[in-house]
From TrEMBL:
Belongs to the L6 tetraspanin family. This is Transmembrane 4 L six family member 18. One of its GO terms (cellular component) is membrane. It comes from the Eukaryota. Its main location: membrane. It is found in: Membrane. It is a multi-pass membrane protein. InterPro entries: L6_membrane (IPR008661). It holds the Pfam family L6_membrane. The chain crosses the membrane at residues 7-28, 48-70, 91-116, 159-184.
Amino acid sequence: MGSRKCGGCLSCLLIPLALWSIIVNILLYFPNGQTSYATSNKLTNYVWYFEGICFSGVMMLIVAAVLLVLENDNNYKCCQSENCSKKYMTLLSIIFSALGIAFSGYCLVISALGLVQGPYCHTLNGWEYAFEGTAGRFLTDSSMWSQCLEPAHVVEWNIILFSILISLSGLQVIICLMKVVILLSKMLCGSYSVIIQPGII
């Protein structure tokens, strides 16, 4: 019962993380609250991968909802024996937890790539990725940020929001990984072992 409650708490944690991922990803489309850059397609290409809105957001909400349903004590039996039903539900939970790792992992990778690439901004040479060839060195050298003339403070905007997305999706990966480990230990360590009736060989 304790492990079930623990698993339910982990699944519940995925919901606020997913909602925050959606909010943070949406903010990336509006540097300094301005909509003109999104409508004119003058944003970094990695925001169009919908990593926070779709994968770490909506898809993770679906995963969390399914996991909560599967962990409910009142779910319907799928087999003749309670032991079989528990194994089946645990297997489904492992599959959806693995999907959660894939979805949040996608967001983590894309956000990291967006962070290292840097923003698409207007420089003295026109609109370009000013820091694309710096291998992320600009992240620790704020003196380089003045190369981006427009949008204002776009470098800080991208660094903060992509970093938050990395943190949120990273937590989702950890939670889903913990769930997989817990559920696998249940199956492999005999929590749902078959009961052998006495006298049956």
